[in-house]
């Protein structure tokens, strides 16, 4: 007999508290989150506590945290924004993509290295 996947008891949209926008703007799915406080403040909802405990050992992106929590990324953004506002988490912008190197510079470098022989 195959195991039936367990469904969440509480729908993911309830994790946002019925809000349509997070309090803190600027979160992307690659925003890096990490715990800022030694212990979470009292009175956090269960989902907030789960996110804080997940990030206590080290940093994760919003998308990675959402996957671990089995929540949509949009709901995880709300949870993270709440914890950042409470001072429990810090958020850092994602590392920008590297720009492509100018090919002529690489070719001149290779010519220079070959002349050193």
Number of domains: 1
Uncertain stretches of 5 or more adjacent residues: none
Distance between the termini: 69 Å
Strand percentage lies at 5-15%
Please, what is the average pLDDT?
A: 81
Summing up helix and strand content along with how strands pair, one would put the structural category as mainly alpha
What CATH architecture label applies?
Answer: Orthogonal Bundle
Q: What quaternary form is this?
A: single chain
Total helix count? 4
What shape does the CA trace take? Answer: elongated
Pfam families: DUF742 (PF05331)
Protein name: DUF742 domain-containing protein
InterPro entries: DUF742
Structural commentary:
The chain contains four helices and three strands. It has one domain: Orthogonal Bundle (Arc Repressor Mutant, subunit A). The mean pLDDT is 81. It starts with 31 loop residues before the first strand and ends with a helix. It is mainly α and 117 residues long.
Quick rundown:
This protein is mainly alpha-helical. The protein has helices spanning 46-55, 62-69, 73-85, 103-115, and strands at 32-35, 60-61, 89-92.
List the helices and strands and how they pair.
Elements: E1 32-35, H1 46-55, E2 60-61, H2 62-69, H3 73-85, E3 89-92, H4 103-115
Antiparallel strand pairs: 1-2, 1-3
Helix pairs in contact: 1-3, 2-3
Protein name: DUF742 domain-containing protein
InterPro entries: DUF742
